[in-house]
Design a protein that fits this description.
globular; alpha+beta; seven-stranded mixed β-sheet
């Protein structure tokens, strides 16, 4: 069989992430609210009963094929559920990018305007959200985040609670270099932190707001 013609058909202009199905696929919406002609970014603090309790995040969650046609559907559905807002009050501006986190999570990130006049119009779901708060968008344009690092390490085996060692990658059997039989480092991973007056915003949420502010500053510089 000649594969040359077929090979040409699998090359696409907008490339997808290879192995994406092996990751946790999720989507979030960065909500913007305008109060007295000033743009604010809305954040939520997760409740104590959900995964990653007490952390600051944007509304969003895992893609669910039963309810969602695409990742934008995920972001808007979760925003409506968590913030208690009607879908027709969300104006989605578009997608700002895809974040691939080192712990096996992909976050499709969208930007939207909440067409409300006050936070009092939101009826947050306290099962998932402890509270919401806003920070002027200008703050993130004018202030750089602190930068820290964590060390990533790959392990070819795991140890159970009873001490039993379970081999995950049979290095010796496969004839791989001996150095892979013990944990090896995958380098450092950047962790951004915004120290606001009210909350510490870090991790994925900080990466997303940093991406948004960076793109905004690039556009502002072009207009000058």
């Amino acid at each position: 069989m000649n594969y040359l013609n077929t090979l040409g058909r699998i090359v696409v202009k907008n490339c997808s992430i290879i192995g994406k199905d092996l990751y946790i696929n999720s989507a979030v919406l960065i909500p913007i609210i305008v109060i007295d002609k000033t743009e604010f970014v809305l954040f939520q603090k997760r409740s104590s009963t959900v995964r990653q309790p007490g952390e600051v995040s944007f509304p969003g969650g895992h893609f669910n094929s039963r309810f969602d046609n695409d990742f934008l559907s995920t972001a808007t559905r979760e925003t409506c559920e968590e913030l208690g807002i009607e879908k027709d009050k969300i104006s989605v501006l578009g997608k700002i990018g895809t974040l691939v986190a080192p712990m096996g999570v992909i976050v499709e990130t969208y930007l939207g305007i909440l067409n409300i006049n006050s936070l009092d119009e939101l009826k947050i779901d306290h099962k998932e959200v402890d509270r919401i708060f806003v920070i002027p968008l200008e703050y993130f344009i004018s202030n750089k985040p602190d930068e820290y690092f964590t060390r990533l390490e790959l392990h070819p085996f795991m140890t159970k609670e009873d001490g039993e060692k379970v081999e995950l990658l049979p290095v010796k059997e496969l004839g791989l270099p001996e150095k892979y039989s013990i944990p090896w480092t995958n380098g450092k991973h950047r962790v951004l932190v915004y120290r606001t007056s009210g909350e510490v915003i870090w991790g994925i949420t900080a990466e997303l707001i940093f991406e948004l502010s960076t793109k905004l500053k690039e556009q502002i510089d072009k207009q000058l």
